[in-house]
Design brief:
Oligomer: single chain
Distance between the termini: 188 Å
GO molecular function: beta-catenin binding; cadherin binding; calcium ion binding
Structural class: mainly beta
Strand content: 25-35%
Helix content: under 10%
Radius of gyration: 59 Å
Protein name: Cadherin-11
Number of strands: 44
Number of helices: 5
Function: Cadherins are calcium-dependent cell adhesion proteins.
GO biological process, one term: calcium-dependent cell-cell adhesion via plasma membrane cell adhesion molecules
Shape: elongated
Subcellular location: Cell junction, Adherens junction; Cell membrane
């Protein structure tokens, strides 16, 4: 018989021919085993959403009159949690949230998780109660985890409720193909058997959860061996499909049976009765014997009428992606470690004959902020900068290994990195609320009990200590007592507090976490003095003084009325000033109604005659050059005449002294109007029938006036007296 060889198909799996040797009048059927031959099912979000499940446990007891009374036994709010297996996303999977009824949301509650996988697979946010899975889970390795949760006081670590147990179930996805575990199979059937004769039954198994969905619901079909044989889809029983199968015509058949999960629908995984992989076994050797059972007796001496042959089957290699030596990796690194700190090493190898080298890389979508880098040649993972546990306690990344050469196939592995805590955060007050204290508080009374929190992990038996800051260690108002349970009590030392004297006191307190290295901080406690009634019920903490119940005092009423009067006076003055219209200082031409005079010496023209004579030039010739004279304004305020300046008698005839006196008064009075200003007219009109009005030309005209009296007016009028009073003297001479 010839040597039979066949290449591997699908995921590097072999469909091997099994040689059947017919013995006597029987047809032999041989079947092998095979693992999987389909792509991994990308299950589309079949997992249940992790939720905030509620289940209150109550204990009932009947009252005296048949009334059912409920007493809460435990305040946990949850039920079972589920997490999907084989999750490979960049972020940890949110399993669910734990919440206690005693948690009011003020941060004083801390949640603690213990049990299977606590701290390695499952981590809990001690403030919110959120539980995350930090590793890829495989339901086939462990289907569920039993954990215990407890709520404790953050400052004292004292349990607030009894511990409660719950279960995290790993939700199945279709990630395992069916397998025929008992192959290879060999069977015989008599020749000329009727159609439907049972040959044998094959059974495949599926590691997925048979109770969830169709992941383990198998359907059988025949891939090779038709039309001679058939298989029942549900049972895997192989039967003959053709009549009159003659051994002399063909004595052996190779039959391949396939088992497919998901009820045989598209997307299901499959396995066949073929296999044992090039990397597992590279060749097979079979020994085949053939004989002739119907020999003519006369030729028996020439026998024997049989022969043997050896068949060698070689499995050819196919290019496959590299394989990591571990299904996942978990490393630890201390927070604040410098850049370049070694985290750990991953290793993958090419199992093919070529044994190509492997190149490593971290897909950026799994490490968006690029906290880590990897050596592409040896798979060593290092940090790119210091890590902060309080910001992110776990980092879940993926590493890809790609063979150099070949088809550049790659494979990925999950890497979980835990950031180990370092005591690098000082403690601080658990709450920052003000302390309200009555004015009538008695000395020695506890007005507040303070506690602290720390962002770092508290070691076993580690606690906080409290003390007053050195600058207030000897104050006479308040004292502090460390209770040695991570709390401290604040006492009052004196009486007689008054919020009118001082309404707020600031008390600096030092807190030490006693860690390694020890961290401490100074936090200020604000104490506000309040008014209280006889039962120490706080009435008011405002800083304003009391309002008398009988009404306002007389002084207060007078002050209020005075303020009102002043405000009214200001308003009236403001309105008066706005309404007052001041006279302009400049005389504008448009205010003179005699601005233009139009003369007509003959008839005609009418309104078309625009020749006009501007009388403004006669009125003020300087105005033509752009000069406008100032208009005298009488001052609004009058001041009395300064004392010490004498004034002559009314009947005095000394005009010179009188004028000097008036000039002195005007010069010394800053409020006096400029009534002594002189208007100068440098233009004399011509053609007037009335003649000139100037007194300068009066000396040339005849006049009957006698100006001799000017001689008695003093030196200031001597010039006038010489001009007008000497006429008669010159004539007489």
């Amino acid at each position: 018989m010839p040597m039979l060889m066949m290449k591997r198909q699908g995921l590097g799996l072999l469909r091997a021919f099994l040689v059947l040797v017919g013995v006597s009048a029987l047809c032999s059927v041989a079947l092998g085993t095979r693992k999987g031959n389909a792509s991994l099912d990308q299950r589309s979000h079949r997992h249940r959403h992790p939720g905030h499940l509620s289940m209150h446990r109550h204990k009932q007891r009947a009252g005296k009159e048949g009334q059912v009374l409920h007493r809460s036994k435990r305040g946990w709010v949850w039920n079972q949690f589920f997490v999907i297996e084989e999750y490979t996303g960049p972020d940890p999977v949110l399993v669910g949230r734990l919440h206690s009824d005693v948690d009011s949301g003020d941060g004083n509650i801390k949640y603690i998780l213990s049990g299977e996988g606590a701290g390695t697979i499952f981590v809990i946010d001690d403030k919110t109660g959120n539980i995350h899975a930090t590793k890829t889970l495989d339901r086939e390795e462990q289907a569920q985890y039993t954990l215990t949760a407890q709520a404790v006081a953050r400052d004292t670590n004292k349990p607030l409720e009894p511990p409660s147990e719950f279960i995290v179930k790993v939700q199945d996805i279709n990630d395992n193909p069916p397998e025929f575990l008992h192959g290879p199979y060999y069977a015989r059937v008599p020749e000329m058997s009727n159609v439907g004769t049972s040959v044998m039954q094959v059974t495949a198994t599926d590691a997925d959860d048979p109770t969830y969905g169709n992941s383990a619901r198998l359907v059988y079909s025949i891939l090779q061996g038709q039309p001679y044989f058939s298989v029942e889809p549900q049972t895997g029983i192989i039967r003959t499909a053709l009549p009159n199968m003659d051994r002399e015509a063909r004595q052996e058949y190779d039959v391949v049976i396939q088992a497919k999960d998901m009820g045989g629908h598209m997307g299901g995984l499959s396995g066949t009765t073929e296999s044992v992989d090039f990397e597992t076994k590279r060749s097979y050797t079979l020994k085949v014997e053939g004989s002739n059972p119907h020999v003519d007796p006369q030729f028996l001496a020439w026998g024997p009428y049989k022969d043997e042959a050896t068949i060698k089957i070689s499995v050819e290699d196919a290019d496959e992606p590299p394989v990591f030596v571990a299904p996942s990796y978990t490393f630890e690194v201390e927070e604040n470690a410098p850049e370049g700190t070694v985290v750990g090493r991953v290793h993958a190898k090419d199992t093919d004959v070529a044994n190509n080298p492997v190149r490593y890389m971290i897909p950026r979508y799994t490490d968006v902020e690029q906290f880590f880098s990897i050596n592409s040649e040896d798979g060593m993972i290092t940090t790119t900068r210091p890590l902060d546990r309080e910001t992110q306690a776990w980092h879940n990344i993926s590493v890809s290994a790609t063979e150099i050469g070949g088809h550049h196939q790659d494979t990925k592995v999950r890497v979980n990195i835990k950031v180990k805590d370092v005591n690098d955060n000082p403690p601080e007050f658990a709450t920052n609320n003000e302390v309200l204290m009555c004015e009538t508080v008695a000395p020695g009374k506890v007005i507040e009990t303070v506690s602290a929190v720390d962002k770092d992990e508290m070691a076993h038996r580690q606690h906080f200590t409290f003390s007053l800051a050195p600058e207030v260690a000897h104050n006479h108002n308040f004292s502090l007592k460390d209770n040695r349970d991570s709390t401290a009590s604040i006492y009052v030392l004196r009486k007689g507090f008054s919020r009118l004297t001082q309404d707020v006191y600031y008390l600096p307190i030092e807190i030490n976490d006693n860690g390694f290295p020890a961290m401490s901080s100074t936090n200020t406690l604000t104490i506000r003095v309040c008014s209280c009634d006889s039962k120490d019920t706080i009435l008011s903490c405002n800083v304003e003084p009391y309002v008398l119940p009988a009404g306002l005092s007389t002084g207060a009423l007078i002050a209020i009325l005075a303020c009102i009067v002043i405000l009214l006076a200001i308003v009236v003055l403001f309105v008066a000033l706005r309404r007052q219209k001041k006279e302009p200082l400049i005389v504008f031409e448009e205010e003179d109604i005699r601005e233009n005079i139009i003369t007509y010496d003959d008839e005609g023209g009418g309104e078309e005659d625009t020749e006009a004579f501007d009388i403004a030039t006669l009125q003020n010739p300087d105005g033509a050059n752009g000069f406008l004279p100032r208009k005298d304004i009488k001052p609004e305020l009058q001041y009395p005449i300064r004392p010490g300046i004498g004034r002559p008698a009314a009947n005095s005839v000394d005009v010179d002294d009188f004028i000097k006196t008036r000039i002195a008064e005007a010069d010394s009075d800053p409020t006096a109007p400029p009534y002594d200003s002189i208007q100068i007219y440098g233009y004399e009109g011509r053609g007037s029938l009335a003649g000139s009005l100037s007194s300068l030309e009066s000396v040339t005209t005849e006049s009957d006036l006698d100006y001799d009296y000017l001689q008695s007016w003093g030196p200031r009028f001597k010039k006038l007296a010489d001009l007008y009073g000497t006429k008669d003297c010159s004539i007489n001479d």
